[in-house]
Structures are given as C-alpha cells and as structure tokens.
C-alpha cells in the first residue's frame, strides 16, 4: 500500500539499488493505511449505486419510449441464441446480431489482450479502452427475459450511454465483469 517516487513512479518489482538511487538523493514515499483504502468509495461503485437507485424509481427501461422504438422491431433473426438460467464466459467470437439505439446491427468484440471493447456497426468500429467505460447497466427485456438491453456509460451522464439490445442473458454477467473488473462486486 505504498508507492515510491524517484524521477517518476517506480515499478513495484525494482529495488532502490536497481534504479540507482544514490546517497543523498530525494525520494518520495506515498502510502495509505488499510482503513483508508477500505473507506474509499470508488467512483465506479458510486456511479453504479446511483444508477441502481435511479432505476428503482423509474419505469422499466424497456417500456420507455426511446427503447420501445428499437424493441418493437422484434428480435433480430440472426441474434445469438440465449440460454436462460445459465451464466457463461465470454465467447471467443464476437457477440453479434444485436441492435443499437438507432436499430442498426451491432456486434461486441472483447479484445482482452488489448484491454479494449470493440463496438462494431456496418459503418465503423469504435475501439474503446475498458477503463474508459464508467458503468454498465442492463435489464431483461419484458416478454423476452432470456435477452437483455445493456448500456455502456462512456461519459459522466446518462446521455453518454451506448445502448445495445438483445444481448443473450448468459453473457450479461461476464460482460459486466470484463468491462468493470471483477473487483467491482466484492
């Protein structure tokens, strides 16, 4: 729970001798107590708690007008099959056959080796660093509970949500874990 700085932040696996700190050199040590670390409410946790509180006050997302226009198109013919009551790891192939808020086709590709989420449409592919996604919100689609509608929060407010519809339910938890990091749920 300490960091050493000498001409910048030092890698944790190096000793002072290995980075050639000489006698009389100035170094800075920054640290926290375990109680300080545990008392911190991280921004992602706070954002997720805020969103959950808001969701409890509102009507279900799938009944809201902005979402109805996409959901009323019906389930896409080429959407990936869903398995209700099962949680699976992310598939090795992109999740495809879903709609975005415009009703256009969208696919999600998780590039774990690059720590990126690629959101692909017919027009372009957005390559987003996982760390830039502030939150992930999802809700089952009424009447089709084996599929979810899901939003990736790309900025500070709800206006920055990127909505994806018809996400197979078995991948919802794996997507959240991958994007937000498993530490989020401890």
From TrEMBL:
GO terms for molecular function: cadherin binding; RNA binding. Residues 69-180 form the UBFD1 PH-like C-terminal domain. Signal peptide: none annotated. Coiled coil: none annotated. Gene3D superfamilies: Phosphatidylinositol 3-kinase Catalytic Subunit, Chain A, domain 1. This is Ubiquitin family domain containing 1. The lineage of its organism: Eukaryota, Metazoa, Chordata, Craniata, Vertebrata.
């Amino acid at each position: 729970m300490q960091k050493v700085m000498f001409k910048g932040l030092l890698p944790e696996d190096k000793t002072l001798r290995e980075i050639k700190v000489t006698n009389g050199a100035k170094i800075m040590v920054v640290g926290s107590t375990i109680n300080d670390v545990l008392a911190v409410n991280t921004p992602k946790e706070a954002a997720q708690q805020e969103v959950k509180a808001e969701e409890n006050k509102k009507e279900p997302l799938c009944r809201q007008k902005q979402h109805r226009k996409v959901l009323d198109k019906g389930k896409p013919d080429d959407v990936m099959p869903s398995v209700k009551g099962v949680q699976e790891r992310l598939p090795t192939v992109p999740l495809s056959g879903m709609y975005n808020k415009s009703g256009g086709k969208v696919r999600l590709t998780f590039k774990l080796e690059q720590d990126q989420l690629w959101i692909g449409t017919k027009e372009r592919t957005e390559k987003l660093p996982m760390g830039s996604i502030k939150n992930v919100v999802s809700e089952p689609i009424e009447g089709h509970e084996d599929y979810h509608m899901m939003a990736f929060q790309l900025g500070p407010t709800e206006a920055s949500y990127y909505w994806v519809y018809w996400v197979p339910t078995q991948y919802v938890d794996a997507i959240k874990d991958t994007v937000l990091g498993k530490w989020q749920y401890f």
